[in-house]
Amino acid sequence: INSADNDNQTSLFTASDRGQLRVVQLILASGREIDTKRASVSSPSGTALKIAEGNGKDDIATVLRVYDQK
């Protein structure tokens, strides 16, 4: 779940970027420790949350904020 591609993009980052709410929810519900703060090489300041916010994916941003508060 936390493995990344050559640009350091995880599945959470990609799902957040593409607006795939259900995939984001499944990743977070997996029970594994998820690194929601990991940035990618192509977007060094872009965490999954920042990418979701920047792309107007408010539903995903909300889910990520709630997860980070746990």
Which characteristics define this entry?
70 residues, mainly alpha
Structure commentary:
This protein is mostly helical. It contains 4 helices and no strands. The chain has helices at 11-18, 21-28, 48-54, 58-68. Helix 3 (48-54) runs antiparallel to helix 4 (58-68). The longest helix is centred in the C-terminal third of the chain and has 11 residues, at 58-68. The mean pLDDT is 80.
The count of helical stretches stands at: 4
Span between N and C termini?
19 Å
Q: Please indicate the percent range of residues in DSSP E strands (runs of 2 or more).
A: under 5%
Low-confidence region ranges: none
- Alpha-beta content class: mainly alpha
Order of helices and strands: HHHH
Mean of all residue-level pLDDT scores: 80
**Main sheet characteristics:** none
In total, the number of strands is 0
Q: If you compute it from the alpha carbons, what radius of gyration comes out, rounded to the nearest whole angstrom?
A: 11 Å
Share of residues in helices: 40-55%
Shape descriptor: globular
